[in-house]
Amino acid sequence: MHFMxxxxxxxxxxxxxxxxxxxxxxxxxHTGGDIxxxxxDHGTGVVxxxxxxxxxxxxxxxxxxxFMVLRLLQxxxxxxxxxxxxxxxxxxxxxxxxxRGWVG
Length: 104
Fold this sequence. Notes:
- The protein has a single domain, classed as 2-Layer Sandwich (GMP Synthetase, Chain A, domain 3).
- 38% of the residues lie in helices and 22% in strands.
- It has three helices and three strands, in the order H-E-E-H-H-E.
- A three-stranded mixed beta sheet has the order 1-2-3.
- A hairpin with a 4-residue loop joins strand 1 and strand 2.
- The C terminus is likely disordered.
C-alpha cells in the first residue's frame, strides 16, 4: 500500500485548488474582473488569491471571496480555512517565475 508524504499531499492540494478555481470561477466572474490563485499556506489553511481588473475596486469582492470562493473550495478541499484577497502587485509568491498564480 502506498501513502502520500506531506510534500506530495501539499502539491495535490495546490493542484486541486487551482483546478477548482480555474473551472468554477471563469463564468461567474466574466464582469471584467478575475480572481487568480497565488498560493496555499498548508500550515494555516489560508488560500491567497490575487484580485485583478474590476475585482480590485469592487465593493462586493470581500463577499465574493467569503461566500463564493471560500465555500466552493471548502466543499472540495477540507484543508482550506480562509481565503485572503490581495491586489495584483506583480509578486511571484510561489517561486515559479510567473506572477499569474500557480499553474499545475
